[in-house]
Amino acid sequence: MGDSRVPFSDIYLATEPYVKSVGQVRIGASGIGWKAAEGEAEALQGVNIPGLSMPAGMLALQREDLRRLQWQRVARGYGLRIHTKSGTLHKLDGFTADDYEQLRDAVKRFFSGLTLEVRDISFKGWNWGKTDFEGSDMSFRVENRPMFDLPMAYVSNTNLANKNEVSVEFQPPRFAGKGTKRKSAPDELVEVRFYVPGTIATGSTIPAVKGDDENMSVDGEKSDNEDEVSAASAFHEAIKNAADLGQVSGDSIVQFPEILCLTPRGRYGIDMFSNFLRLRGKTYDYKIPYANVQRLFLVSKPDELHMMFIVGLNPPIRQGQTRYPYLVLQFVRDEEVAVDLNLEADEDAKRKTEAAKLRRHYDEPLYRVVATVFKAMTDKKLIEGGGFGGYHGSQGIKASLKANEGTLYPLDKGFLFAPKPAHYIPHSEIASIVFSRVDASSSNKMRTFDLKFNMHGALDYQFVSINREEHASLEEYMTKHGIKMLSELNETTSVSYKGMDADDDDESDEDVTPATLLGTGGGGGGGGAAALNASVGAMGLNSDEDESEDEDFVAESESDVPEEYDENYESPDDAEE
User: What is the pLDDT of residue 337?
Assistant: First the structure.
């Protein structure tokens, strides 16, 4: 039986991207098999391919599971696309042009009812055509020839960018090779936009079906008997169905409906599954793997009435050209909820919930239930505020980052700014912190000060409009955590403009103000005036006339717009007060 099989050597398993494992393919009456060459099975560790057995590195596809076989041109020469009845698409690359006839004869010999189809790729370079859904992939066709395929398993989000435009966003590859670092990972396609004009006749929200049940395409024909919807909407729904982005509730662990999200703004339903979560909004839907969650924060807002739960994401979710590396959820502190968890949704959910010791029923504040479930499913530490106490006892202090007002939270290992734009600054990345406008001199009567974060090899951050009352608590916090503090004066050796302005004002006051001429002793009393009159009389001038003229002269010498140049200028309204 082994002698009747047809072998092909040096064939790559290309079902998953970045898999560089080479092996041998054998085709026989029982089906198609691929086995990794000696030492090549290690590259398959962590790869989840249906039918692949480890650690042997063997892929076995039974004859009765085969539905369609296709031969096409690929980057590694020629490839075999194997469609199974379960909807899985397997790819084997590395065949030569001479292997076609031998492979075709083997399929005809062993697999009755199947033929080796030649899949001609379009090289015209056109950017308009039709789309077909073949199993788990979407194929873009030009003149009935495929130009490229998009795997629906990697679609993270799709939305209607406008009336006739559909945006499709992709997750990074789930497997980039053992030991591959993020910085050395190759460039990836993250978004494709399709312009879909016209309307279609439909009784539902998905496009009409062409051909067999496995192929769907947008049908632009109209019908007089049915209602019409835009083709873009139908195409959008077809992608959501193929990518499994719709509302699924049967196997979810828990659902949190209508959660207020500050970033991105709106109300979203949150569905928690064993390996990912879904955000369902009115316009945008997101599928976020738990592997993308980097940090979890739970802090109280300064009003003490609301709680913010912040989820750090890498890569961030996107809405058009806008990236959101953080999800900021807001809850009413006193809002309680009774929730039942489906701890046996699947094996992964059962394992995670048991390890995290989740209960089946919760009757607690909503923010606490959400944070607990997120912590268990993502296996990330929940960072909570409370170690820092401001002047009024709050966890954070009010500040502004550029033009955005928010709250700066000093945490155990970093600073968190929320809600928009949310930023987390670890202590390890801070070179020093500069306090600006903190002196209480007469030339600076502001009630707020600024903080400038000098970073190690990154852009600096400047938080402004911080209440002066928070200075002592911040200084104590930074001293406790060993953060280098600088004042505005000793940050650089150059003289600041502020100091120069103060010196100029002082000199100007000494030169031109009546207090300087008359003397400051005794509040500018008769001693200074007598000395001035004596000196004037010694010069042989009429003191009475000259005195009135001098007063007129001093009044005329003052600036026409003193409030623009003299920071000590007082308006008539101020004098009345």
Answer: 92
d(CA 259, CA 336): 13
Angle, CA of 282, 137 and 176, to the nearest 5°: 95
The answer, yes or no, to whether residue 181 has pLDDT greater than 60, is no
Query: Which tokens go with 447?
Result: 């009630």
| 173 band by pLDDT with thresholds 50, 70 and 90 | low
- d(CA 286, CA 313) in angstroms, rounded, equals 12
> What does the alpha-carbon distance between residue 517 and residue 508 come to, in Å, rounded to a whole number?
12
The radius of gyration computed from the CA coordinates of the chain, to the nearest angstrom, equals: 36
- Write out the DSSP string of 140-154: EEETTEEEEEEEGGG
Q: Decide if 353 contacts 374 (C-beta within 8 A).
A: no
Instruction: Read off the DSSP letter of residue 172.
Output: P
| Structure-token match 């738990």, residue found | 290
Q: Which two tokens stand for residue 468?
A: 């002066």
- Does 561 score more than 60 pLDDT? no
Q: Are 20 and 177 in contact (CB under 8 A)?
A: yes
Give CA 182 to chain center in angstroms.
16
Whole-prediction pTM value? Answer: 0.64
Q: State the average pLDDT for the chain.
A: 77
378-387 pLDDT tens trace:
999 999 987 7
Please say if the pLDDT value at position 523 is more than 50. Answer: no
The per-residue pLDDT for 26 is 93
C-beta separation of 385 from 409 below 8 A: yes
Q: Quote the distance between the C-alpha of residue 312 and its chain's center.
A: 7
Model confidence at 439, in pLDDT bands (50, 70, 90)? low
Inter-residue contact 117 to 145 (CB < 8 Å): no
339: which residues sit within 8 A by CB, 6+ positions away? 254, 361, 362, 363, 369
For residue 547, the SS3 value is helix
Contact 353, 321 (CB under 8 A): no
CA distances in angstroms from 42 to 11, 25, 58, 79, listed in the order given: 16, 18, 12, 23
CB 418 within 8 A of CB 480: no
- The residues, ordered by sequence, that sit 6+ positions from 331 with a Cβ below 8 Å of its Cβ are 259, 260, 306, 307, 308, 309, 365, 366, 367, 370
Contacts of residue 525, Cβ cutoff 8 Å, sequence gap at least 6: none
What CA–CA distance (Å, rounded) separates 338 from 344? 19
Q: How many other C-beta atoms lie within 10 A of the C-beta of residue 90? A: 22
Cβ atoms within 10 Å, residue 462: 15
